[in-house]
Amino acid sequence: MISKEAEIVWQNCLKVIRENITDQGYKTWFEPIIPYKLVDKKLIIQVPSQFFYEWLEDNYVKILRKALDFAIGQDGQLEYSIIIDRGNVKNNQPALSIDVQKNNQRRPDHNNQVASATIKNPFDLKGLNSTQQDSFLNGNYTFDNFVEGDCNRLARAASFAVAQKPSTTSFNPLMIYGGVGLGKTHLVQAIGNYISRNSVEQRFVLYVSSEKFTSQFINSIRENSLQDFMSFYMQVDVLILDDVQFLSGKEKTQETFFHIFNHLHQSGKQIVMTSDRPPRELAGMEDRLLSRFKWGLTADLQTPDLETRIAIIQNIVEEENAHIDDEVIEYLAHYIDTNVRELEGVVISLIANASLTRSKIDLDLAKNTVKNIVEETEKVVSMDTIIDAITDQYNVKVADLKGKTRLRDVVLPRQIAMYLAKEMTNLSLKAIGYHFGGRDHSTVIHAIQTINDLIDTDREIAKSVKELKMKFKK
Ligand code: ADP
Ligand code: MG
Fold first, then answer.
1. pLDDT at residue 439 above 60?
2. Contact 254/289 with Cβ under 8 angstroms?
3. Fewest Cβ atoms closer than 10 Å to its Cβ: which of 61, 79, 158, 323?
4. What is the pLDDT of residue 374?
5. What is the pLDDT of residues 399-413, one digit of tens each?
């Protein structure tokens, strides 16, 4: 229960605060505060997180003092109560109280909070102030042109649910993962577009790649504008962060994202993320961040099956206003089974080819186009080729390579094979382990490290690995 007195006193404080700081600062840092109680001359306010409290103390201490002087008097005091975050469970009772008396000078007031009229938008590289909120969405990515199939049903359904009711489903955060070119960006952009177009309330939707987020963060440190960076992200209603695997190993960026994540989540904002692998395989990611990712829903995108590939091609043909015979479509769908981006590339260049040469799209033209494109991209070696080469060179049996034996004559070739698989294929560590009798990824990592070390120290091995690689290049 919020006390009436506290409410009145806080409203008086807000009058002073509102006059002295920017609108955005007010919205971000003061609107989320809940006046909790008034005990004599001490006002207790609830703040969403420890970070929030520290931020207020670091940046707004003077203005808070002024507000208390006005609303209570010189001897007025302020106490923060932090709502401990417990995942999705909203906790209205203050779980922890920190007694911070406003008149002690425990924390220095680094910044004068009366900042420039608007906060610096981290997307404005030239430092121009843009007042308009750009979402960085590409309007071409919609649910309408996202072909549904078994490979993406759950991810699509969850995305659509979030798009219809951002932050009210239990899919918060929503994490979509899957390999390259399987439609992650398309799907999360579709969420953003849908919300921007259909929402009754005006919501600030923001799409940002993790790469861009990282460079903005680094810039903000360099330019001394971290406060603007944080304030900017904290106003977002729907934050779409693409390719979070990019944050791996970037501790400071992760920490900052962690605070933004907590703040948005606790303020009932929607978070959507993508990754090229499942969260548990995100090495170099802080545990506390990983555990946040599990609060909502994680859904994967798989390689589309033949029928879905056919439907995707038909979709492109229609969008391009072209015509391709069913026979040719089927050929293409059979042939290109890796990812949608590649499929799209082939179909579009086929259409372009035909229109340039004014020829009809027939099977021959299709075969030629596929050949040219696939040859270009197929520098990647297959697992079978590697295993063949290894059994040849070291005179071991395939069964031994995949088996359990720990004889050095087998272990070394096996480790070299794993090393080459990592270097020359697109397979994940897990998949490589799978090819070698279901060994787990830590065994594969160990093999790669061993061979890396040997290449540095053992000339024979360095030479033979080099020769093997040359073989594949032919
Ligand atoms: P990712 O982000 O997973 O690497 P993208 O979202 O960029 O992949 O998708 C690659 C291309 O394939 C995009 O042009 C996208 O529109 C298209 N695409 C992927 N999946 C589908 C689908 N199910 N239906 C229609 N187009 C798709
Ligand atoms: Mg992408």
1. yes
2. yes
3. 323
4. 61
5. 999 998 888 899 999
CA angle 392, 397, 398 (to 5 degrees): 95
The CB of 312 under 6 Å from ligand 1? The reply is yes
CATH number at residue 437: 1.10.1750.10
pLDDT tens, position by position, 226-261 = 888 998 999 999 999 999 999 999 999 999 999 999
What's the 355 CA to ligand 1 centre distance in angstroms? 24
**Does any ligand 1 atom lie closer than 6 A to the CB of residue 275?**
no
Overall domain count for the chain? 4
pLDDT in tens, 353-369: 888 888 889 998 898 88
Strand ranges across the sheet with 270-275 = 205-209, 238-242, 270-275, 174-178, 297-301
pTM above 0.85, yes or no: no
In the block, which residue shows the tokens 């102030």?
Answer: 129
92 and 24 in a common domain? yes
Which atom, in ligand 1's list, is nearest to the CA of 147?
Answer: 24
Q: Which residues contact 21 (CB under 8 A, 6 or more apart)?
A: 30, 60, 63, 113, 114, 115
For atom 9 of ligand 1, the residue with the nearest CA is 183
Residue 90 has pLDDT above 80, yes or no: no
Residue 147 lies in a domain: no
Are 187 and 293 members of one domain?
yes
